Amino acid sequence: xxxxxxxxxxxxxxxxxxxxxxxxxxxxxxxxxxxxxxxxxxxxxxxxxxxxxxxxxxxxxxxxxxxxxxxxxxxxxxxxxxxxxxxxxxxxxxxxxxxxxxxxxxxxxxxxxxxxxxxxxxxxxxxxxxxxxxxxxxxxxxxxxxxxxxxxxxxxxxxxxxxxxxxxxxxxxxxxxxxxxxxxxxxxxxxxxxxxxxxxxxxxxxxxxxxxxxxxxx
Length: 218
Prior knowledge:
By secondary structure, the chain is an alpha+beta fold. It has helices spanning 31-45, 53-79, 112-121, 124-132, 139-160, 165-176, and strands at 8-10, 21-22, 89-90, 100-103, 185-188, 191-194. The two termini are 30 Å apart.
């Protein structure tokens, strides 16, 4: 499948050898997250723009959210399980989908949406959300980024597994009804549009780059 869905696995409780590092180190406001934002800012600035820190923070947030949501969504819809990111590992590469290792699990819950909320939306993504608030990134943008990352995962997964489309949409609709995602986007005539902007257009010279297709400003 698409690289954003790919992941290694390790036995629960195991510590994979280097270059694997605990995912938890990038989910809180600390040196690893700040280094990540700085790296993203440097990549964006290579285009010649004067990139604001909050723009780099938003792009970092969107990329990490998409990386976590994609395999979690595929596992939930395709296998009825939700990974435990509290013991996940990553490799801080730049460009594309960062390597990710998830603990093996066969945990199934009657309320898969509640489990997804607990283990993903209210777990690592909430920690990341709280950490990025320190980069002058508004809550509206942060919530919109999660909605956009979820929509991206839905779109990619629907392309990879078209036979899952109905299940994917039902699961997405239930997730978007949760408080953490409520009113972050609309679906008009089947088109997703977020109610906020990820700020990526401001990475261009004069802060005047193209808007994303799902942007509220487009």
